[in-house]
Hints:
Layout: E1 4-5, H1 37-50, E2 56-60, E3 74-79, H2 90-93, E4 104-108, E5 116-123, E6 128-132, E7 135-138, E8 141-142, H3 172-180, E9 182-183, E10 186-188, E11 193-197, H4 207-210, E12 213-214, E13 218-228, H5 233-236, H6 243-256, E14 264-265
Parallel strand pairs: 1-2
Antiparallel strand pairs: 2-3, 3-13, 4-5, 4-13, 5-11, 6-7, 6-10, 7-8, 9-10, 11-12, 13-14
Amino acid sequence: MSDQDIPAGSEAEFTPPAAPPENTAAPPLLFDAPRNAIAEWTITILLLLFGTTALVQAFVIPTGSMEDTLLIGDHLLVDKLSYAPAGPLSQYLLPYTPVKRGDIIVFRYPVDTKQTFVKRVIGVPGDHIRIINKQLWLNGKPIQEPYKIHKTFYLDSYRDNFPSDPNTNVDERAIDMLRKHVVNGEVVVPPMNYFAMGDNRDGSLDSRYWGFVPRENIIGKPLLVYWSFDSPTEDLVNSGVDLRHLWDIVRNFGSKTRWKRTFMMIRGYPTGT
């Protein structure tokens, strides 16, 4: 199966002003509550052995919006079955799960569905979301998010105190969200939609800037990193054959492969109540 790059689009250009990064270590990735280790690996092995593009697909991470959970150059296998609608028989045979807060999802970018993004679900239908001085509040409570990082020390009036008046260009979907789905200073997630953000909160083009993720846009959830190669974004967004990138892989396969990430399972983190 050939890798299919996740196009970066505007996200690759979404770079905050330079500032010394915080010394924040990558948090542990936790199991989804309903599944144990044996179930996770059983599903993964079955998909690897019998999977087709209808069941599992390969992607590569081209930007740093999900650092330090997912790194630029992480090559992923994505489970396309996990959120599929259950049928009369398959609901008893296959591990379908609802989209939950804290899940990492792969989805078609609402602004341009030819592009594919990876973010974390922060809010599900009915949730009330607010950010105050970089702190996420969910349904009236401050939420601890051990997976997130901040790489700028200053406060941005829109990014870090949300919802508020945009101080930059945002998509019309975000404008619609701010006009129609804000109640008492909180964004309320409508039915069949989700609010998603990157773990690298200061460098992520996410729902704050383009609105909700419709349920029909969600493709699946990442299963594992099957290979991680230290590459710059520009080497991963090229849709054609990049001979320079291929030569880089040949020359530096051993030294630039992040061996500790090989076959690393990717799991959500329960968020909120």
